[in-house]
Amino acid sequence: MILAIIFLLTDLFICGITYMVYGGKPVYSDGMILGVHIRREVQEEPELVEFLEGYRKQVKRIYAGVTVLGVAICGLCFWYSSIFMIAWCIWFVAYLAGALGVLYLNHRKLYDLKIQNGWGFTEDASTTMRVVDTRTIMKSGRMALPLWYHIIPLAILVIPFVSVDFRDYLGTFSPNSQGWILFITSATVGIVFLWIAWIFKRIPNRVYSENSDLNYRINYIEKRSWSICFLGANICNTIAWLYLVRRITKNRWIYNIDIWIYIGIINLSVIVAIAMLIWIKKQKNILQKEDETPLYMDDDYYWRNGWYANPEDARLFVQDRFNSMNYTTNLGRPAGRYLVGGICAGVLVLLIWMCVIFLRMDFTPIRMVREDEEIRITSGYTNTFFETDDMQSVALLEDGIPKDQYNRTNGSDDGKQLLGKFEGKKLGECRMYVWLEYTPVIQIKTKEYTVFINSKDANETKQWYDELKE
C-alpha cells in the first residue's frame, strides 16, 4: 500500500513538473518561442499559429497518456513488487522518450519553418554573439544573498547533540540506524543546497537588452529570488530535522508518521520553488515587453535538434534553451558526448539492477541451513550467518512476530514480506525473513540481534525450528 502511494505521488509529481517546465503553453520569451529565436512581429503569422496549436494538442495527448498509464501501473504494487518495478522502469523510459521526443521534434520543425520563412534576426542561422554588459557584471555580487546565511541552518543541525536524551537514543542503536541515517541525510541535503546556491551565484549574468538598467533588474530578480528560495529550502530542511529531534527525545522512537511529516516539510521548498519559477517568468515577460531596445543572440543552428552541439565552443556546460534554471551539456565536444552517454548507461544499469533485486526478493525462497555449529539463512535480498553458541533462545510464535514498532534500516517491507535489517522499539536490532500472511514464525535471539524467520509452508517452518532446538 505504502509503495503504491509513494510511486503514485512520484509519477504525478514528475509528469506535472515536466509538463509545466517543458510541455506547457509555448509563449514568446527572451526572443524565442519553443527555444527558437523568432522576430517578435511574426508571432501572429497563420503558419506559426497553426503549428503551435498542433504542438499544444500533441503535448496534451502525450502527457495525458503517460500520466494515466503511470497511475494505472501503480496497481501492480498489490500483486508482485518486482512485476510493478519492471513495468514502472519501462514506463519511465517511455515517458522520457515521449516528453523529450515531442519537445525536440517540434523544436526542429519550428527551426526549419524559421529558416524557410526567414523569421530569424539574421540571414546567417549560425550567427553567435557574446555580449557583455559591464555595468551589470559590476553589480552582480550584490544580487544574490550572501552564502554565509546558509551556515546558520547548517549549524543548527548539530545543536540537538547537546541533549543527553538525544545522544542516548542514537547511542542505543547501530551507526546505520534510522536516526543516524536521517541526520546524515539532513546534513547532506543542507550542504547540497549550499552548493547549489554557490553555483547559481557564480552563473554569469545574461544580457537581454541594450539597456543596462533593464539587464540589472532582470538578473537581480532571478538571482535574488532563487537565492532566497535556496536559503528557504535549507531552513525547511533544518525545521524538518528539528521536528524529528523533538519526536525522538519525547518518544525515543521515530514512527512512520514522523517520516511522512519530515518529508512533507522538506517538500514545502519544492512548492515554493515552483511558485518562484512561475513568478520569475511572469516578471521577466513584463519587463521584456516594455523594452524598446532588445538585444537578441541567434545561435539556433547549434540548437537545431533540441540539444546544444557546438564543437567551436570550449564550454562543456551551457544554459538550457528550454529552462533557464537548468544547464545542459555541449554535445559538440567529445567530453560532453562521453558524459551524457555515461549518465544514460548508468541510469539504465541502475534500473536493470533494481528490477533484478525486486525479482530476487519476490521469487527467491527463504532458506535456513544448519551445518555443524553454524546457522545460515539466505534469501533474495540479505543473508545472515551466526554460530549456535551465539543463540540465547529459540521460540516458535504461533501468532506471528511480536507487536512492536519496526523501522527498516536496510530492508524491504511491501506489505507481504519483511526482509532485511530492521529495528524494533522494544526488541532493538532485528533480521527479518518473514511472510506476514503465514504463521508460525521462529524467533531466534542472539547476542547481537533478534532473527525472525518463517516459510510459506508451516511444516517447513516447524522443521527449521526442530533443527535449531537440537
Automatic annotation (TrEMBL):
Presence of the UniProt keyword Cytoplasm in the record: no
Transmembrane segments: 6-22, 62-79, 85-105, 147-166, 178-200, 226-244, 259-280, 338-359
Keywords, alphabetical: Membrane, Transmembrane, Transmembrane helix
Taxonomic superkingdom: Bacteria
Parts forming coiled coils: none
Presence of keyword Lyase: no
Identification of the protein by name: Bacterial Pleckstrin homology domain-containing protein
